[in-house]
Amino acid sequence: MAAMTVLLVAAVLSPGLAILREDVLQMVGDYFEYIRARQVTLLTCSTLDAHKLGRRLGGARTWVFAPGPSQGAAAVEAAARQDYHKCGLFLDLDCPEGERALQLASDRRLLNGSYHWLVWSAGTSLRESELDLELRVDSELVWASPDGEDGMLLHEVYRVGTGTPLVHATAGSWAKPGGLRLQPFTYKYLQRRDLAGVRLRTGITVSPPQWINAPLENPKVNLLKLENRQLDAMATYNYGLYIMLQQQFNFTMDLVVTDKFGFVVEDGNYDGLTRLIGEQQVDTAISTLLMNRPRMDYVDYSTGYGWEFHICAIFRHPSESGGTDALVKPFSGSTWLCTFLMWFVIAAFLKVLAWVQPHYADVTGEDAEEIPSWSDLMLLVVGIVGEQGTWLDSKWFTWRFVFFLMLLLTVLLNTFYAAIVVSTLLNQQAQTINTAKDLIDSHLHFGAEDIIYNRPYFEVVLKENFAFHTEAVRAYPVIESMFPDEKKCALKEIELFPVEMGFFAFPFMSPYKKMFTYGMRKIAETGLWQHQNHEWRPSKPTCASTGAEVISVDLSSLTPAFGLLAIGCALSMVVLVLENLHAKFHHQKFSGNTF
Prior knowledge:
This protein folds into 4 domains: 6-185, Response regulator (Rossmann fold, 3-Layer(aba) Sandwich), CATH 3.40.50.2300; 195-310 and 499-545, Periplasmic binding protein-like II (D-Maltodextrin-Binding Protein, domain 2, 3-Layer(aba) Sandwich), CATH 3.40.190.10; 333-426, Helix Hairpins; 557-591. It contains 20 helices and 20 strands. The protein has helices spanning 22-34, 47-57, 72-80, 98-107, 188-191, 209-213, 219-222, 233-249, 272-278, 293-296, 333-364, 374-385, 397-426, 436-441, 455-463, 472-482, 485-489, 513-525, 528-536, 559-591; strands at residues 6-9, 39-43, 63-66, 87-92, 115-120, 140-146, 151-158, 167-175, 179-182, 198-205, 251-258, 284-285, 300-301, 308-309, 311-316, 445-448, 466-471, 491-494, 500-501, 505-506. Strands 1-3-2-4-5-6-7-8-9 form a 9-stranded mixed beta sheet, with helices on both faces. A 4-stranded mixed beta sheet has the order 16-17-15-18.
């Protein structure tokens, strides 16, 4: 058979008269066809009624289950095991098993938004019945009753909360001439948005201990104060979103305060807010939770539009003022090698000139000059490099020309050297710590936040090379108030974990999940969520400085220079001692005296 329709009749049809009128059968068929139910369970008083309804509902995409007049309890149990998106159930309440089956469905919590109930009663209204049904705000129960000889009225019946009065809302009507006429379509939770001030237990996680032990006399007022966002930005932010929900749906919040979000403790159980939700000690939660696999088995998540977790390591990037090799960095190794070789070649060339000039003086008859020693030439080179000049002089043009070139070369080398040093100190330094691995390999000390808003750690960040791991928005107000502008410009953030969105969590089978999800989406679509972000999430501290922070040269950078001075002083003392010893020895040798 090509059609997918299946009619399952568990009981064998027996002769008997149908109890339901033809117009009622037609109304039932029209209703389930209108809501496009994919599976329909029929709880009728006779197998003939079930057979007739099965034929009416038989379509290409509808499954019909008719267990028989005396199998109402079995039908309810079977319906509880179904997971279809739209599961329809028709119940003839006038049957002997009718009220018992409906009460059993209520006890099994099947009067929720997953099951579309159509209850028919020819003489009893739900108000007049003695049934204590666990109806909810998301219940899909339509009560049909006669309206004259040829018409019927349909009412939606639900409760806004446990123990609240029944709410009857006109759903539509059915008449023989016109058929099914339902009210103009309105989204269910928009139609039921007035919860009539029902009190909902709402869990919230706050961090300041004083809000746990002594809730500041009125936590609802203090959570709305903008100045308290530095105490707990997440709690105040999410509470503001729930105030918008409260204004949409008119409910009352009874806060259940905890200081933990909920993690696995002994025996695989949770604590904190997660436990409150999982054990249904609260109806909903104000604080959002990060989604992870263990929690998904414990709580039911809604959509986002909650708190966005931006957790990072905040630090001032260490200044690169140099190091022990700062004095040699301006030139490369090959440049330094060529420079020393060049000075050696020039000193050797001057030595050759000094040796040639006396021979030339013998030929020309000019007065010969004293030939400078190697030590004189080395002092000449050092004096020229240090731009201090020299006491050596010569009347020969060749020697003076070489001396002039030495001065010119020194000016060029010193200009390049000084320019590179100054530009290195004034220009913005390259950011070498950009990833988590760079941070681990750096010499920075590292601290992680264990309690919220640990202010002393930020003082360490201000004064020392220290990286502090926290949520960014918690640090921004402290940085804005404590750090001078040049320190703000040096701050850097590294995300050690990806940015995650917090999700609102509900107990499983919560009647308020879809309603509040709709409310949160409406808040986001109208721009209120973005407004809440601007209002309650502190912005990143701005760097108003027009230039980079001037880096001072530290002592370690000048260590080689002081080291050379110390070595020179030590060598000079050694030479002085050796010269004195040599002078005494020479004087003793020629005078004939002994020690």
